[in-house]
Amino acid sequence: MNPMKHLLLASALAVSSAALLPTAAVAVTATESSVQAKIAADQVVVTEHRAQINGERFKYTATTGTQPVFNEAGEATAALFFTYYERQDVKNREQRPLLISFNGGPGSASVWMHIAYTGPKALRVDDEGFPIMPYGVKDNPHSVLDVADIVFVNPVNTGYSRVLPKADGSMPSRDEQQRMFFGVNSDVKYLADWINTFVTRHERWRSPKYLIGESYGTTRVSGLALELQNRQWMYLNGVILVSPTDIGIERNGPVKAANRLPYFAAAAWYHKALDADLQQLDLLELLPQVEQYTLDTYLPALAKGAMLSAAEKQQVAEQVARFAGLDTQTVLRSNLDISTNFFWKELLRERGQTVGRLDSRYLGIDKKDVGDSPDYNAELTSWLHSFTPAINYYLREELNYKTDVKYNMFGPVHPWDRSNNNTGENLRQAMAQNPYLNVLIQSGYYDGATNYFDAKYNMWHIDPSGKMKDRIGFKGYRSGHMMYLRAEDLRLSNQDLREFILQTVPAAGQAAKY
C-alpha cells in the first residue's frame, strides 16, 4: 500500500470517521435558517470490504469523499464528490486498469452505474428492474472490480458535489458558475483537470485507463478522451459509451426520423403489439429486417418528401405501421414521421397504458387516453423510487460518509451551454492519435431516448474513413437505457465490459504504433 493510502486508511480506522485533508474552503448549500449544511472541499473516509465477484473472493477498500477542482491560479473552485473502489490483493498496481465512471443528464449524479452496474453493490430490484422493499443494495457478483479499480465521479451540483465560495467568501454568480462548469466544453475542461489530480494523488499514472459514460456522460467522456491527451498528456486504453447521445454527430431530418423505426419495432414486439408473423420471430430475428428496411426504403422515402408518389407513400406507411405496431392511417396522417412522444402514448392507447421513454418495458397510466404524449415518464419514476433511498442509505450506513448536505440525484446545472459540441470528432481524433484507444458502445433495444440504432449510426460515423472500425464495437441488450437493471443484462453487460478491458490492455512490449 502506498504512503497516501496508508495514511488515509489509518486515519479512518483511528477515528471511525473522516480522514481530513487541509482545506480552508467549504462547499455551501444555502438554507432558510442561519445554520447551513456544509461539505468539506477535501475530505475522505476509507472503509474495508470483502467481495465475491466473477468467482473470485478478495478484499477491497472504498474511499468516499471530496476532492477539489482547482483553477489556473491554484484556487479550489468546487468540491467533487467521488467513490473509489480499489482491490487490495494486487501486486503490480501499474498493470491494474483504472475505470473512471460518469453518468449524464447533464445534471445527473453518478448513482445509476455506481449502485446498479459496475460497482461491487447492486440495487435491490426484481429481475426486470422494478422497485421492491425493503430498499437498499446487495452484493453484485458481476461487477468488473475483479479486473479494474473504479472511481465514480459526480460533476458539480450532482450528488454531494458543490461550488465553493471565492476567496472573499462570496459565491460565484450564476453566470460565473455557468462559464466555469455548465457547458459541453467547460465540463470537459474542469473534469480533465480533476482527473489529473486524482490520478496523481492515487499514483495511477502507469495504470491502463478507461472512461465509461452513460447517456450525456457519453458526450462527456468522448470530449475527455482528446482533452486528456492534448492538455493533460494522459492517454487512454478505452472509452465505453453506454446508451450514447449524438456526441455532436449530426443526424437530423430524415435520418433522425428513420432511425427510430427499429426501436419502435423492438418496443412493439416486447408488448406483443405486432402482427402474428412478426411476433413469432425472436427479437434478434426481427430487428435485422427492420434495420435493412430502414436504410434501404424508409430513409430514402422520407428524404423524397413531397416528391414521393401517393402509391409509394401508401406502401411505406403500411410497412412502417406493420413494424411499429401502429395503424396505417396514423402513419399517413403523420406524413410517415412518427415522433417518439406520440409513439409512447399511441402504442398501447387501446389498452389504456403508456410506455416509458428511457425504457419502454415500463408502463404508465394517464389521466386521459386522448393526447399526443404521456403525462409522465413511467420508467424514471420507478427508478427514482428505488435508487434514491438506496444511495442515501449506502453512502451513510455502509461507506460511513455522513453529511447533512442533500444528495442531488439531479442537480441545478441549467442553462447548459451546448454550443460547439465536437465531442464525437474529438473522440475520433483521440483514437487516430492513440493506437491503444478502443471504443465499446452498449445500448438497450427498448431505449426510446437514446435509441440503439442511433448508437449504431454513431459507430458508423465516428470514423467515416473506416480505418479504425476494428477498434469500435457494439453490444445490444434486451432492456432499456439502464440495461443493467435487468438481472440477465447485468451479467451480460458486465461480462462484455470485462472482456473489452482485458482485450484492450496491451500485451507486455506491445508498442502503440500503426
TrEMBL record:
Keywords assigned by UniProt, alphabetized: Carboxypeptidase, Glycoprotein, Hydrolase, Protease, Signal
Glycoprotein recorded as keyword: yes
InterPro entries the UniProt entry points to: AB_hydrolase_fold, Peptidase_S10
Pfam families associated with the record: Peptidase_S10
Top-rank taxon, per record: Bacteria
Signal sequence bounds: 1-27
UniProt keyword Cytoplasm present: no
Recorded GO MF terms: carboxypeptidase activity
The name this protein goes by in its record: Carboxypeptidase
